[in-house]
Amino acid sequence: MEASNSIWAESLYRLKQNKLAVISGFVLLFLIVLAVCAPLIAPHSYSYQNLELGAVAPNATYWLGTDTLGRDQLSRILYGARVSLLVGFVATAVALIIGVSWGIVAGFFGGRIDATMMRVVDVLYGLPFIIFIILLMVIFGRNIWLLFIAIGAVEWLTMARIVRGQVLTLRNQEFVLASQALGIGNISLFFRHILPNILGTIAVYATLTIPQVMLLEAFLSFLGLGVQPPMSSWGTLIRYGVESMEEFPWMLIFPGLIFTVTLFCLNFFGDGLRDALDPKSN
Questions:
Q1: Domains in the chain, start-ordered, CATH in brackets?
Q2: What is the distance between the alpha carbons of residues 27 and 180, in angstroms, rounded to a whole number?
Q3: In 171-194, where does DSSP find H-type helix?
């Protein structure tokens, strides 16, 4: 336990030394707080609209302007953050749970188990995931939580392959073979030796999966299978902005800017986590 605590303490120390990762982490935390507190700080409800007002450029009353239906952009961005960040984190968590578990079992035990499990992954890769999600939405109804789970259920395949490859490399390393020779059980071997060596890879891929999931949600919303009006997400706001960017550029600039900042922060924080969780780092 002391060795385990020391590993996590050293990882936290290395993460703190990466200023860019720390700043990105605080920005992400700030965005999460804004999303949680959206009903308290948003000037208007996400369903508010003033058709007579129309699209108005940013001013003292509407800081980020309004869209063509007279809806306050600031309020819609704040409420959209709740959907976009939630779908990003929840769907990624589902993908990590399934993918990491699948990849570890396949890579660690190898042989027929590995061959069978990876053939299942290959078959699922060949299926059009959009059709799979559409079938789920048609059968079980348009539920936003079902959307999160459905996206996560199709994003785990790449994670399973990545984790399997890492475990296949690690299981033949001297420290793993020595631990097995000493009679250490598989569960203890995984948590004490294998997991610390793949956490960096998992963290980086997770931070890359979150924006990918957010973009997928926007695409599904475009097809009418995702977030339904008047609710909004950053992806839907960007799509509306693209349609009117020549006449009303602020409709695209502000949602696109906040989405870009979020992507950069996720990438920088993921890089920092990778370096901090790498046991080979000095």
A1: 2-50+57-277 (1.10.3720.10)
A2: 43
A3: 174-181, 186-189
- Residue 37 sits at the vertex; the CA angle it makes with 259 and 84, to the nearest 5 degrees, is 30
Question: How many Å apart are CA 216 and CA 48, to the nearest integer?
Answer: 26
72 strand-pairing partners: 66
Pair 20, 272: CB distance under 8 Å:
yes
Structure tokens at 123: 């078959």
**Maximal CA-CA distance, the chain:** 77
CB 78 within 8 A of CB 38: yes
Per-residue tokens: 217: 């949600």
Phi first, then psi: give them for residue 48, nearest 5 degrees.
-70, 135
Distance of alpha carbon 222 from alpha carbon 46, whole angstroms: 18
Asked if 169 and 106 count as a contact pair (C-beta separation under 8 A), the reply is no
What are the residues whose beta carbons fall under 8 Å from the beta carbon of 172, sequence distance 6 or more?
A: none
Amino acid identity of residue 232, one-letter, is: S
What are the φ and ψ backbone dihedral angles of 281, each rounded to 5 degrees?
-70, 145
Structure tokens at 36: 């949680």
Which of these, 232, 213, 228, 235, lies nearest to 137 by C-alpha position? Answer: 228
Q: What residues contact 32, with CB distance under 8 A and at least 6 apart?
A: 85
- Confirm if 251 and 240 have CB atoms less than 8 A apart: yes
Axis-axis angle for helices 73-109, 111-126 (nearest 10): 150
Buried-exposed string 30-50: b where 16+ CB fall within 10 A, e elsewhere: ebeebbeebeeebebebebbe
pLDDT along the chain (282 residues), means of 10: 59 83 93 92 85 85 88 92 88 89 86 88 80 73 74 83 86 74 72 76 82 79 72 83 87 91 87 73 51
Rg (alpha carbons) of the chain, rounded to whole number: 22
